[in-house]
User: Fold this.
Amino acid sequence: MKNSILEINNLKVFPNNNSKLKLVKNISLKLKKGKTTCIVGESGSGKSLTALSVMQLLSSQLDMSGSIVFEGVNLVNLTKEEVRRRRGNDIAMIFQEPMTSLNPVLTIGYQIEEAIRVHENLIKTELNKRVEELLSIVGIPKDRINSYPDELSGGQRQRVMIAMAISCSPKLLIADEPTTALDVTVQAQILNLLNDLKLKFEMTMLFITHDFGVVEDIADEVAVMYQGEIVEQGTVLNVLKNPKHPYTKALLDCVPDPYGKKDLNPIDYSALKRAMSLIDK
Amino acid sequence: MKILLKAKNLSKEYVKTTGFFSRTRTSIKALDNLSINIKKGITLAVVGESGSGKSTLAKSLIRLIELDKGSITFKERNMRTISGDELKVTRKNIQMIFQDPYASLNPRMKIIKIMEEPLKIHGIGNSKTQYSKILSMIKRVGLEEDDLLKYPHQFSGGQRQRIGIARALILEPELVICDEPVSALDVSVQAQIIQLLKSLQKEFGLTYLFITHDLRIVRHIANEVIVMKDGKLIEQGKTDIIFNSPKTKYTKELLASIPGNLLKRK
Assistant:
């Protein structure tokens, strides 16, 4: 397909001492260029493992099979050095807890600078200019350039992570629950920022979350994951308005409704199992 | 309706000293002349962003933080002056459930010990009656007898929060302060815990002070809402009224930042 930037084909992830136990079971997913695709699921559904497989950052205790094709190149066949060059440059990633991904003893200015230096050869003054530019794009005042991570709020830290991630204008940005640890108001700001950046830099986004509310705000396409499988995928309107799979329906039912019209229903896993076995038949 | 807890003009200031010889003093008002009433048997939600002072409020009510000013009356007792046995008895009546179940359970204690401790401190029952009490409570929150011999790390986040709830309720408190009890949980687990809290409230006639930054949850659990900002009370009222006709700009802003407004806006 011409308009897809990343194709995940038959991805399986398993512990390397037990290849029968599939943590991700044969999933395939295409990311459309310039669109945001959300992977939604509970903890343990394999959504983060899928993201890490794309970045080739799986733990050494895990193995994968299948192919990850980014702009026509299968990342699985590349050497470590070739993957490293793409990481950050073509594909960047932001994580849930910005404090654990930032180095506490280095200033944020230095850390953003470092992200650029790894991939580009710039002189000091140009580097400085780029860092200031990036800070203003993500909405952090210039005078915070010499601040340490602990001097920033959670939302600001996530903005720094975003500045680092977009520093080399990646084509694909993977965001693994970037707003889960944040307040609702800050979450809304960060989601807006990511949306603006996506449009401005024509980025493609792979966004991972467990919250259908967030999906509604940011996604163009949705893939619902359950127990290592994609059980449903489609456009955000289709999936939210006409969910087909019983799991999608159940997950939508446990999102609290701010309008108070809908009851809060925890997932009834035994009923779900029965409904799913009917589909299989 | 009977008022269970009455807090008047609460103030708490945190002073930070910086600069050479700590000569620069900056102060932050975590609570700024705040008054609230908690009615018996209802759920009162306290909503605000981080830094709004909502956790300071919660901690000051059970005197984990000493206030600068103000009065707290719980069941006709002045919470700020009582001490010794009287404070102990009152604290038994007000229990707390914390945000992070990972951090609030001692990793080196088995669940049975964690549950026994409050009973021993307050001298309730003998070891036999204590065990049957613990067993029925742990089953009530959805865990099994076998789970009593496990350590906290053997449980999932949702299960740990169930243990936190069981520990808080074992002393049969009247008021339970829930400080962001579901913020660290997945949506599906969140729904389970909220339903559990609601059914426990009905069964034991509990009063909840429910602290959260997520207005969606407020809609499902609270009868009344207080909106806080910078230690001040911005708006208060019945949940439906706050949601349907918010008066202040700040409450409107909070409502607008609820995720998942897209489809309804279109």
Notes: The two ends of chain A are 32 Å apart (CA to CA). The CA atoms of residues 213 and 259 of chain A lie 13 Å apart.
